[in-house]
Amino acid sequence: MKIKEQTRKLAAGCSKHCFEVVDKLTKSAQNTVLRLQIELTKSVTSIRQGEADVV
């Protein structure tokens, strides 16, 4: 019986730690995605501006 209890406690602790790590990575990933989206928007805007100049 003690082994089952210890396993449950260990699993609960591990899952909590994993969720904390995922949350931190998610925030970092969101910042990265936002930066890439801004850069892509700038690139598309400059390309469209260049196409307008050519026409």
Describe the fold and architecture.
- The chain contains 1 helix and no strands.
- By secondary structure, the protein is mainly alpha-helical.
- 0% of the residues are buried.
- The model has no long low-confidence stretch (mean pLDDT 70).
How would you summarize what this structure contains?
This protein has 55 residues and is mainly α. Helix content is 96%, strand content 0%. The protein contains 1 helix and no strands.
Helical residues, percent: over 70%
Q: H/E order of the elements?
A: H
Overall shape: rod-shaped
Cα-atom Rg, whole angstroms?
A: 24 Å
What does the largest sheet look like? none
In total, how many beta strands? 0
Mean pLDDT: 70
Protein name: Chlorohydrolase
Topology:
Blueprint: H1 2-54
Any descriptors?
55 residues, mainly alpha, 1 helix, 96% helix, Chlorohydrolase
